[in-house]
């Protein structure tokens, strides 16, 4: 009846009730002015807990204020049992060591905890047993092991002694010649000293915490891992975040000469503040998951959980005789029970004797690129092509080294987060690398995604929006790859890293006998980003596929790397040749299992929930990794791009990257055109082939000339315009209107 009234505010009302109860306790216990009811209440407390009743008002006020202020706070059953045991043990000890038993210091509860033990083991033995119970209650309350409690106690005592000694020394040293005492001039300095003295961490890995709230595999029946406190997270975040106004100081390798470029400041990127997760809610959902499996005859034990930005992975141990396949067959039933769109089952978790069930969080957490670039992982990612990708299921920032990948394929349905991931990769490069270190070619057939990066000094050419010219850009990359190989062969190095290192050391000198004007230059990395492969494959499939294949096979050593994205993960777009040469994949949410197999060669992407949720194959393993892709806003991109444009108001592009393309045909791979001019070599070959075979078909031109279907169709249309073949008659081959003799006359005349 009253469920709707108290919904969402039960803690507040409970807190008000406890505060009122505390006032009643003060009136009854201390003032004895609560009337007959208060006197009876005080007598009852005296009988039950004796002198312990004097602490109840403070406890009642504290709990009441806590519930009233923090509405989502919940007292766990384990902690409640621990506090009850802790209170009983203290009352028992009070009963044993009280000099005046008439005052009943421990009450009836203290007598229950002490009298049966003292009658059997004496006071000393009872004290030892109660001390053990006291340690056990502390373990239940804090969730820490005996060793951890001992370390905490030892470090606290040592820190307190050190603090007292240092304070005494400071006071002694601060006494001047006139005997006047000089205290701390700055209260903040004093607070910093005190905080440093009492700063104890059980796990040195706590120094590497992100600002993300993560609960990592907390064991329920075994010793749990130390909690990551809010103060520790704030301190770690303060250590990692650069001071406002500074640029990110990350060593990106040796440099032959001091660079004139300055990296963007970290203040251009915003950091997220996510709400702390309610651990009790997570555990309740875990218990609900176990109960759902038990209702289908699958006995499991919840051994831990890991909460990430998007999903929570529950780790389950199977009962004896339970098959893994039986759990995987219940994915839809689990999703129904957990009120989730879908769940992903890892059976088993790699390297562990447990299965993992990934359930979407009720409240998703936003991951910004700023969070990644101030993390500890960003400090260790010191390569120009180390790009920020996202956060994994345990909340760690993930960086991907494109130079070792060495190419990346991104695919997923429309709106799943592909373009956001590409923008994060490009922004990550712009934040961490100068134009002397990384150059880029951006191919954007959609015309709206890459326009914001125009006039950047990192670009070799303006963003390519014409699909016909995109093949030229890829062809230029093939020629540049061959040129770089010639340079490496001449210089005697196997890859660009060794060449640049020798250049920075000043070892690249012109030998005797070589031209005087010859000189070696530092070679930058080249990152080619293709935002929509499908549009290119529709225009010039053969040329694009050949260029991508050659670059993917050979360009790693010379520092040219591809990032190819598509929203149509079909075998016609992501061909077997392309997949074989691009092992690293990012799969966002797709609509079917078939699409997931096309991208990853395994299921899983059809279970993703969109909005940046993805599976990544790094290329060196077949085990996919679930990540939440980072987000970068358009305003942040404008700030970063504006920083580079201010340093280079006028940008000079490399000539010949885009080539030329006419209106009637696509651009050829290495420049030139395939229009209807009489001297076009491909046109002459097609005419010669059709006339001598006296049979005209598009499929024949595809096979003989090794061109794509679109180009073969245009060649056939131009032959029709010239009167070489007749009009199309459905599926039948076209009639050839020109004889071999007429062809030879034309060839002699030309």
TrEMBL record:
Keywords attached to this entry: ATP-binding, Cell cycle, Cell division, Cell membrane, Chromosome partition, DNA-binding, Membrane, Nucleotide-binding, Transmembrane, Transmembrane helix
GO molecular function terms listed in the Swiss-Prot or TrEMBL record: ATP binding; DNA binding
Pfam families: FtsK_4TM, FtsK_alpha, FtsK_gamma, FtsK_SpoIIIE
Transmembrane intervals: 12-31, 51-69, 81-98
Segments of this protein annotated with the region Disordered: 215-259
InterPro entries: AAA+_ATPase, FtsK/SpoIIIE/SftA, FtsK_4TM, FtsK_alpha, FtsK_dom, Ftsk_gamma, P-loop_NTPase, WH-like_DNA-bd_sf
Lineage: unclassified sequences, metagenomes, ecological metagenomes
Domain (FtsK) ranges: 395-597
Location, primary (coarse class): membrane
Binding partners and assembly: Homohexamer. Forms a ring that surrounds DNA.
Gene Ontology CC: one annotated term: plasma membrane
Membrane topology reported for the UniProt record: Multi-pass membrane protein
Protein name: Unannotated protein
Subcellular location, record wording: Cell membrane
Family: Belongs to the FtsK/SpoIIIE/SftA family.
PROSITE patterns: FTSK
Biased composition (Basic residues): 226-238
Keyword hit for Transmembrane helix: yes
Record GO biological process: cell division; chromosome segregation
UniProt xrefs under SUPFAM superfamilies: P-loop containing nucleoside triphosphate hydrolases (SSF52540), Winged helix' DNA-binding domain (SSF46785)
Protein's organism: freshwater metagenome
